[in-house]
Write a structure and sequence with these properties.
Layout: H1 13-38, H2 48-66, H3 81-84, E1 101-104, E2 107-110, H4 112-115, E3 118-132, E4 135-138, E5 142-145, E6 150-151, E7 157-166, E8 172-180, E9 200-206, H5 211-217, H6 219-228, E10 232-233, H7 245-253, H8 279-285, E11 288-294, E12 316-317, H9 319-325, H10 330-333, E13 341-342, E14 345-346, H11 347-359, E15 364-371, H12 386-400, E16 404-410, H13 423-430, E17 434-437, H14 440-445, H15 449-456, H16 463-473, E18 520-523, H17 529-546, E19 557-568, H18 571-575, E20 576-579, E21 587-589, E22 597-607, E23 611-620, E24 625-635
Parallel strand pairs: 9-15, 9-16, 11-12, 11-15
Antiparallel strand pairs: 1-2, 2-6, 3-4, 3-5, 3-7, 7-8, 10-17, 13-14, 16-17, 18-19, 19-22, 20-21, 22-23, 23-24
Bound molecules: zinc ion (ZN).
Zinc ion (ZN) binds next to loops.
Length: 638
């Protein structure tokens, strides 16, 4: 009997060739990578630190141009044809059936309507238990008969199966569903001495909701915000980056994504968001009960691109509930009729109801509720929530106006919708809804706060300011982020309770040029020489990037130019001399200064095929050359 020795895998001729080819390809790829990166002003996009430095440099550079120049907030008509052409009327969402079980706070029981028609009811309750953002478990079943209650202790949410005998039917009736409440076992820490009565906070957010979009599609709610609550709606509230995280990181931590640990999924480092300085943690130490409610967990703000949390960041957190209820999103993707419903209730309404229940708990409270399902795919959908939201806000006013800060906000405007193809749509993307109502108690103590807030409605403001404002309202300014853009006189994030200088500019507030709506973007007509030149420069640049891959990547050629816009720094930038008063509130203006750089935005189509690109291109006037960066190009039909 012969014994065969196991053959070493790398001794095989075929495997050796594979290894050599792999190493050679890696070297070629690396060379091509470093080569194309060198041409980008030494920006190594594979290194996070270099991106941070790059952005800081850019801000510092543009601060030299726009410091003290203030912000010309674009005056956009919410009802202009350019945007209303995309409005559609959406029928109300009808959620069928009747949920047998509802929970209120820690008690769940069969609803009277079912009890009055059905006998011999037996319900089996199973807790939906959060393990981590990626995992939850279903607890063991507990049977409860008739009108007896089930008390939530292990989690805030349950899966329920019931059966009984309906009076009009000989067959047994059955119901399966989910319910949410608040487990009785959460006991917030004792507040530090003297901090027992600090104020409460409710932040109610809607995904993809521009200020103008809210005015158009949520007229009743807007009216309640304005006329009943007397909320201040910020006209110069500008995003600081792309997408939901770019708004929520600053609002909830006071920092940008880049300033926080790198927890992107693609880094494969298993780091989670748990050690980031979220406001939830600070407030827990302050004796607050906290809630973070977000729907659509399969595209969660902190889970879609990031590793999510290992432990729930707030006392009350619906991630496990929604993962179970939506079958990890399958309910949504199957496009079933009831995708906007949880049982017999529209999902947005469930979010409002559970937020209301939360506010009725005792002790100090902080809630962040973020509704995405009705705005994410089609902004027109939000209109179905108008009446309920208006009603909710009215109730809020009756009950909580004394001691609760209210913020109703959007994270950014429409991003994928057709409306973004219009100039106004682009600006609306950068100008989300931000409505703030100060608690009465605060107005009595800080007598100038309300006036300052109203004045600040016409000044450039950002998500960083919202974080600073919440801390100020809660008397926790020791946690304020005092970061300043290099060369700036003001902190990046400023409390809205204090006067914000009118001459605050985008770069001083940490807003990069391409997000800054303050600049007046003027249409460049096709007889302007820059119309073709900027488009040609962009096509050249795209070809340049793919040069190393020429064998697989065809040379692109310009098919058409949709539009080109030229950013004129607002007239203030060109004429600003210095501050007129010591506080720097009012600018002193003189003759126009000569411009050395011009920013352009443009949208082009290239062939072969039909790639559509939007980009920011800088023209260095003095040297007659263009500067383009991959970070500032986006392919919009990919
Ligand atoms: Zn968003």
């Amino acid at each position: 009997m012969s014994v065969t020795m196991p053959k070493r895998w790398y001794r095989s001729r075929r495997n050796q060739i594979v290894i050599i080819v792999f190493i050679a390809a890696s070297i070629i790829y690396y060379i091509s990578l470093s080569d194309s990166l060198q041409r980008e002003q030494n920006l190594d996009i594979t290194r996070r630190q270099s991106v941070i430095e790059y952005i800081e440099r850019r801000l510092e550079q543009s601060l030299r141009q726009d410091k003290g120049s203030g912000c010309e907030i674009p005056r956009l008509d919410p009802f202009s044809k350019e945007v209303t052409q995309f409005d559609k009327d959406i029928p109300k969402v009808m959620c069928l059936g009747t949920d047998w079980v509802k929970c209120y706070h820690s008690k769940c029981r069969v609803v009277p309507k079912i009890l009055s028609t059905t006998k011999d009811i037996v319900c089996s309750y199973q807790d939906i238990i959060y393990e981590s953002d990626q995992k939850y478990t279903i607890g063991p079943p507990t049977e409860v008969r008739g009108d007896n209650e089930y008390v939530l202790t292990k989690s805030d949410h349950v899966k329920v199966k019931c059966s009984g005998k309906h009076r009009d039917s000989i067959l047994p009736s059955k119901w399966t569903g989910h319910s949410i409440g608040f487990r009785s076992t959460v006991h917030p820490d004792l507040p530090p001495p003297g901090r027992e009565d600090s104020l409460n906070v409710l932040i109610l957010g809607f995904d993809s909701t521009a200020k103008n979009g809210f005015i158009r599609r949520m007229p009743k709610s807007y009216k309640v915000l304005n006329e009943i609550l007397g909320a201040t709606i910020l006209n110069g509230y500008n995003i600081v980056g792309d997408g939901t995280p770019a708004a929520l990181f600053p609002i909830l931590t006071g920092k940008t994504e880049l300033e926080l640990p790198d927890v992107r999924k693609k880094m494969k480092n298993n780091r989670t968001l748990d050690d980031m300085p979220f406001i939830f943690y600070k407030l827990k130490d302050e004796g607050y009960r906290t809630a973070y409610f977000e729907d659509m967990p399969w595209i969660g703000t902190f889970q879609y691109r990031f590793n999510g949390f290992k432990n729930q960041p707030a006392d009350h957190y619906l991630r496990a509930f929604y993962l179970e209820e939506s079958n990890s999103g399958k309910k949504w993707w199957k496009g079933s009729q009831n995708k906007y419903c949880v049982g017999d209730t529209p999902q947005y309404k469930l979010m409002l109801d559970i937020t209301d229940q939360f506010l009725r708990l005792d002790g100090k409270r902080f809630a962040f509720t973020f509704i995405a399902d009705i705005t994410h795919d089609d902004f027109n959908m939000i209109s179905i929530a108008d009446e309920d939201t208006a009603e909710y806000l009215r109730r809020f006013h009756d009950r909580y106006r004394e001691d609760t800060l209210l913020i109703v906000m959007g994270d950014h405007g429409p991003r994928y919708a057709k409306v973004r193809d219009t100039l106004q749509g682009k600006l609306e993307e950068r100008l989300p809804l931000m409505a703030i109502r100060l608690p009465e108690k605060l107005k009595k103590i800080r007598t100038e706060a309300e006036k300052n807030l109203k004045d600040n409605a016409e000044v450039l403001t950002t998500p960083h300011d919202i974080y600073a404002t919440v801390l100020d309202v809660l008397d926790l300014t020791q946690f304020t982020n005092t970061y300043r853009v290099k060369g700036a006189d003001l902190n990046r994030g400023l409390s809205l309770l204090e006067p914000i200088p009118k001459n605050r500019s985008c770069s001083e507030a940490g807003v990069e040029a391409h997000w800054c709506s303050c600049l007046s973007w003027q249409n460049v007509t096709d007889d302007d020489v820059m119309f073709r030149r900027t488009a040609a420069a962009l096509v050249d640049f795209i070809n340049h990037l793919t040069e190393e891959k020429r064998s697989v990547c065809a040379v692109r050629s310009l098919k058409s130019v949709s539009w080109v816009m030229r950013a004129r720094p607002n007239s203030g930038v060109l004429t600003f001399v210095e501050a007129r008063d010591q506080d720097g509130y009012v600018g002193k203006f003189g003759n126009k200064v000569k411009q050395t750089r011009e920013n352009y935005q443009l949208k082009i189509a290239v062939g072969p095929g039909h790639g559509i690109y939007e980009a920011l291109v800088t023209y260095v006037i003095t040297e007659d050359r263009f500067e383009i960066n991959t970070r500032e190009i986006s392919r919009t039909n990919a």
